[in-house]
Specification:
six-stranded antiparallel β-barrel; 15 strands; globular; mainly beta; 1 helix; about 55% strand; about 200 residues; six-stranded antiparallel beta barrel
């Protein structure tokens, strides 16, 4: 969708038709990570593509597994937002924010970890989700576990960490484009990397 410069308050959809933009607030293009919590103990990683005071556009691995209402914890925000799904596509969902917010309380392990690692530029969130690594020049992907993540970096658990090169592509969702990362440290079966 592109905004029409000839008709303010309208946009041109992917078929070339002009449609009215019913949003009440302007959305800002961003790239932040969010954690969707739909039931106790179940967390799903999302990438927030745009946001406004009233809603957001999220990219997820599979929109079908996301319930109609959930809690979204956005990195660098102290409280989570209660969300309702406005529409969904295969890998995207648009949400409306409820007025209520819930205080985000870090888990005990995450709180201890954040106290130890205050020198980081942006706070990390525990995730414990599946990700994939694609090495340079290759098409094959290797599964890994995303232990924690922030806007600047990620910690991965990989059984073959000693064989991973300095730079590689990390895919948060199996069929996503991926993000280039550079390894900062390597210990046994874990890697710390920053987004480049």
């Amino acid at each position: 969708m592109t905004v029409s410069s000839e008709l303010p308050g309208h946009f041109v959809n992917n078929r070339g038709f002009v449609r009215v933009d019913r949003r009440t607030k302007q959305r800002d293009q961003i790239f932040k990570f969010g954690i969707i919590t739909c039931e106790p103990g179940r967390r799903i990683l999302s990438v927030i593509k745009n946001i406004s005071p009233t809603g957001a556009l999220l990219e997820v691995d599979s929109a079908q597994e996301i319930p109609e209402q959930f809690t979204l914890a956005i990195e660098s925000e102290s409280s989570a937002r209660v969300c309702r799904v406005a529409w969904r596509k295969a890998k995207q969902i648009a949400v409306d924010f409820d007025a209520a917010r819930r205080e985000v309380k870090p888990e005990r392990q995450e709180q201890r970890q954040n106290e130890r690692q205050e020198r980081r530029q942006s706070p990390r969130r525990n995730l414990d989700a599946t990700g994939w690594i694609r090495l340079d020049g290759g098409f094959a992907m290797r599964e890994c576990k995303i232990v924690d993540i922030s806007t600047t970096g990620v910690r991965l658990a990989i059984p073959f960490a000693g064989r991973i090169p300095e730079t590689f592509t990390l895919l948060l969702f199996k069929h996503a484009q991926g993000h280039r990362v550079r390894m900062i440290w390597r210990r046994a079966n874990q890697i710390g990397a920053k987004f480049i």
